[in-house]
Design brief:
This protein has 3 helices and 4 strands. By secondary structure, it is an alpha+beta fold. The protein has a domain of about 70 residues. It starts with 6 loop residues before the first helix and ends with a strand. InterPro entries: UPF0250_YbeD-like, YbeD-like_sf. This is UPF0250 protein THIARS_40170.
Length: about 100
């Protein structure tokens, strides 16, 4: 008798989401305080959340002014949207951390 389960059997149950969609969802993105960092972050966010208002971005430099955090609050419509946005942000060369 084979009791091993395939990968699809192990992942067949959808994970319950703790977020109700649609929902306002803040994302904090940190990177080097370099020219173009905030604009690059906004461009990526707009690709995944076209209704995002760039004027709502909250910018905060680190105490030594070497890093900059951008908090972008989007209207999240699905888990897939958030996953795609996190993937795009974390793969961007100017981004160090996404929370």
């Amino acid at each position: 008798m084979n009791t091993l389960k395939s990968a699809s059997q192990l992942t067949s149950k959808p994970e319950a989401s703790l977020i109700e969609y649609p929902s306002d969802f803040p994302i904090k993105i940190m990177g080097r305080n370099a020219d173009g960092f905030a604009d690059a972050v906004i461009a990526v966010v707009l690709q995944h959340a076209p209704d995002f208002n760039p004027a709502s971005v909250e910018l905060r430099p680190s105490s030594g002014r070497n890093y900059l955090s951008c908090t972008c609050t989007i209207r999240a419509t699905s888990r897939a949207q958030l996953d795609a946005l996190y993937t795009a942000l974390t793969s961007h060369p100017m981004v160090a951390v996404v929370l």
